[in-house]
Design a protein that fits this description.
Number of helices: 13
Bound molecules: pyridoxal-5'-phosphate
Mean pLDDT: 96
Strand order of the largest sheet: 1-7-6-5-4-2-3
Oligomer: single chain
Low-confidence stretches: none
Structural class: alpha/beta
């Protein structure tokens, strides 16, 4: 790996961050806060939240077996993706490499930041080759994006190819594990010490059932996390979200139960979908969704919309011609989908 200074944009490396009132005061015994121009009424929402979310990070650190200094928390994992571009990629000069198809936000953030986005096509079974990915990099490649299990394809990327990418690349590898909880494979978090160029993304939006609170996690070396902290908005995770994050952690048994149910429902739903006349192929999934190749993605999508059932039409995505991406819902929701699809073009 290049040194972190070589990878970081010079203006970011040299940046003196904004220092908030709560940054400068870090004790725990004070009781009179006249330092931040807050309103003394309407407790507790009158106070600025902890800019570094220390309580929440302590909880996540315990659960994920990492140090609090290895955790960045943001307004969804999307914030961490954007910060990676802003910290490392010089607009108009640097580039990033990603598998294709994958999560759309990587390209959107690249475009917003005017950073060249290089796509390396997966094969017909949605597998990737570290060698092909590395061949697309050059001296100005700062980041490689991997997503495992991948969205929208649903499959996990093989661990040995991920590690080959980490070993063969001198920039940072951003491994998005948004759906890892639904796969049988352990996260890469245990390898953070081994690979200083690894950044793992996780989120409260999927298995934790909390997309509405906007809470994403990035795990990396303390040096990388310190850079993210330096350039983030001072109060990027609000008080209500920090509280609800802690509440979810306290109820992590419930999350485990949801994961079990959804994996079981995935099996049932995939089997039922595979039997339908309008379905050609159901692709294997390690996530809480799967891809199905159908006879007419646009027609079936519109038919389902007319019944108030929304799936994701991925027809225009590379390698996903005539594919719908179906999220696993409750048993009742899944049955509604199946009943609707059984009646498609069969005259009701
Ligand atoms: C849903 C999803 C996320 C979650 O993003 P948040 O901003 O945390 O809601 C991240 N990565 C991928 C690949 C996703 O599909």
């Amino acid at each position: 790996m290049k040194t972190l200074q070589e990878l970081t944009r010079p203006n970011i490396w040299n940046l003196k961050p904004y220092s908030s009132a709560r940054d400068e005061y870090k004790g725990f015994t004070a009781s009179v806060f006249l330092d931040a121009n807050e309103n003394p009424y309407n407790s507790p929402n009158n106070r600025y939240p902890d800019p570094l979310q220390q309580e929440l990070k302590a909880g996540i650190a315990g659960l994920r077996k990492v140090l609090p200094e290895q955790i960045f928390l943001g307004n969804g994992s999307d914030e961490a993706i954007d910060l990676a571009f802003r910290a490392f990629c010089e607009p108009g000069q640097d580039n990033v490499v990603a598998i294709d198809p994958t999560y759309g936000m990587y390209q959107v953030c690249a475009d917003v930041n005017n950073v060249e986005y290089r796509k390396v096509l997966l094969d017909e079974s949605f597998r990737f080759s570290a060698e092909k990915l590395l061949a697309a990099t050059d001296d100005r490649t700062k980041l490689i994006f991997l997503c495992s299990p991948n969205n929208p394809t649903g499959n996990e990327l093989p661990r040995d190819e991920v590690e080959k990418t980490l070993k063969g690349f001198d920039g940072l590898v951003i491994l998005d594990e948004a759906y890892n909880d639904f796969s049988g494979t352990p996260t890469m978090l245990a390898h953070l010490g081994e690979y200083p160029n690894l950044v793992v993304l996780q989120t409260f939006s999927k298995a934790w059932a909390s997309a509405g609170i906007r809470l994403g996690m990035a795990f990396a070396s303390p040096d990388i996390i310190a850079l993210f902290n330096k350039i983030k908005y001072p109060y990027n995770v609000n008080l209500l979200t920090q509280k609800e994050g802690l509440n979810r952690l306290e109820n992590c048994r419930e999350t485990e139960r949801w994961i079990k149910i959804l994996i079981e429902e995935r099996k049932v739903l995939m089997k039922d979908v595979a039997k339908l006349h309008c379905v050609g192929k159901v692709f294997p999934s390690d996530a809480n969704f799967f891809l199905a190749r159908v006879t007419d993605a646009v027609g079936i999508y519109n038919y389902l919309v007319s019944l108030g059932i929304i799936v994701r039409n991925r027809h225009t995505v590379a390698l996903c011609g005539d594919c719908l991406r179906i999220t696993v819902g409750t048993r009742a929701e899944n049955e509604q989908l199946i009943e609707a699809l059984k009646k498609y073009k069969t005259g009701l």
